Amino acid sequence: MIGSFIIGTAIFGYATWALVKFINKSKKGKCAACDLEKSCSSQSQCGSPIK
Amino acid sequence: MFGSFKAGDKGKIVNISNVGRFVQRRLLDLGITEGSEVCVKCILPFGGPVMIESCGQCVGLRRKEACLIEVERV
Amino acid sequence: MEIALIGNPNTGKTSLFNNLTGAYEYVGNWSGVTVEKKVGVFKNNIGRLIDLPGVYSLNPLSKDEGVVTSFFLDEPVDRLLNILDASQLERNLHLTMQLLEYEKPVLIGLNMVDVATNRGIQINTEKLSQILGVPVVPVVARSGKGCDRLIEVISTSSNHSKVKKHVYYGKAVEDAINKISIELIGKTEHSPRWLAIQLFEGNEYVKGYLSNLIEDRKLESIITQLESVVKQENSHGKSLANFIYLKRKEMIETILDASVQKISSTVPLSEKIDNIVTNRFLGMPIFLLCMYLMFMLTFDWLGTPLSDVLDGFLTGPVTTGFESILNVINASDFIHALIIEGLVAGVGGVLVFVPQIFILFFFISLLEDSGYMARVALVMDRIMESVGLNGKAFIPMMIGFGCNVPGIMAARTIETPRERLMTILLTPLMSCSARLPVYALFVGAFFAGQKALIVFSLYILGIFVALVLAKIFTKTLLKSETSMFVIELPPYRLPQVQSLWRSTWDKGKGFVRKAGTFIFAGSVFIWLLSYAGPNGLKVDMDDSFLAAIGNLFAPILEPIGFGTWQAAASLITGFLAKEAIISTMNIIYFIPENASLQGILSDFYTPLAAYSFMVFILLYIPCLATAATIYKETGSRKWTAFAILYALILAYVLCLVIYQGGKLFGLV
To answer: Cα separation of C634 and C311, whole Å?
Structure first.
């Protein structure tokens, strides 16, 4: 019984954290699946936006 | 004119100023300007782009721009 | 210490970057893949190395070139590492001269000496170093040869160039430079000479910078005065910018005369390959053949068999393994269902596609690394031109087949804003790798005999729709006359197995990581929504919260063939990430051991409906990450919203046509 409880909490806890992190990363536009972001310290130098 | 060139023809650029400003600038960056010797590598069908080579450097550009480049045959 | 790595595109900068910093970076072989500023730390920790995008000149033409100019104006840099392509010295030196004028310590890495030797070009590095007044170190970036020496020299040499004035531009220009220099005394840390020369060459960024320091009128008058003098003195009537260019060119020729010898000339292998690949008649067919082979390998020949093995493993040993553990610890029904029906189903359902994904990424990497991508742009340009686009736009689209996000970012190399915007808007129509699992699932269930063909048809449909829309957009929303197409075709390279593998692994790794994080999380919550309902826990799926949400939207989907809550719920999750669609479906249609998913699906879809569903997924909406990237790249809420809306409408209308039309023809 206690085992179930621990497993359950662990899973839900991790899931919530992963979800929040993913949504935040996605919003920033970096490819959530892209590995480049670790070594890519890009400061947005995009210049003037397209009107 | 470049337009009548076929694949394998070589020429020396005499006048490039009729070409669009941006294209001219880009070609310049790549080292292609008046006095450059270029060779036509291939011409794509249906009015498609051409590939030209200058000093070992291959560049692709649109046929209608290429036609504006004045060349004398070599 | 901040060191900037700068050079022409395709000079092997990124290979060198990897060798100097020990960090692996994604390397592509056509003009402009390195479009973002990357920073690494030197192997021996002497400082940071900043990899700037490849540029031909500090006077920018396209947006990514502007990044470099802005960098030089606004950001601190201590030393410059200029990498040159030894086989293209004349062209490369134009940038070098501008860098030397910037008056910061410069070190030159002379790369690709092997290519030069092949072409019969021999360079006297000492002489070159002497004339330029800076150290010149030959390297072979791909193998790392010479890099140690390079690091050694960077650490020690802090001297500015021993040569003070590199190019003499003639009295008129030099006088004008002096005038500007006087105006700038005490106002700037940058070299006034450099600023003046860039100004006279027409560098808008520098002009903007200077107008904050010198009164506009004064600036203009100096420029116009100089322009008229130059026009007078020169019979050709050339512009000021051109005059400066020619003076520089003269100097470069002198330098080359002294330090470079040309021995013989042989036809490089690259040209021989190009004779076939860009041949009038063979060019397009060869490209289509390559695409076809790519698909056959990904689906029929290699990908699916491997995938099936993985599937067997997950539904067999892994599931039984989990079952045993759960039984041993006496887990509750809730946990049992959560793990088996939620996690294993959801995450496993995505993981089985790892083989196909990796194969696909491998081919994209191969196309890029080898240099073939640039040829594709050339071959496709005619078609692209006819719809108002640019051959260069095809490359972001090809990258988009892997993942839309880097595809959209690759659009930065397109010089005209209109074409760039259109490319950004249309790239999401390219079927990304995350949509693959859904296709694989459905073709397996309904079109087993023609798997590759059906999937191929979807990819082609995406391209076709994109082209048609491009035409429509060009005629309506995004009218414009300007279009520019000049593309550098770098020599073919045989991709090194190691770099190819790492390139593939990096891309594929992201897929697996996403499975372990987002898909994991998503599966947990989707499963929960399917397990609980208004009436409590462990309800029949049809009475769950998930069904309730799905049922809200199901009626809309009826006319296009899949008006079920299951389809609706799956599609909603697809907005966050397309892989989630398959996870959701796997959880919803959870299969007891021996039954097959194909069998169950047949209860809910007819083959026609299945095809309609796949087309819907192909088109309906860019995922969250893609939408955010569109916003970042366009800077416009309006266009981002447009991208989302037009996709929804397009998907619905097209599916309507397919499904209802198909029914009319009795294709059900």
So the answer is: 41
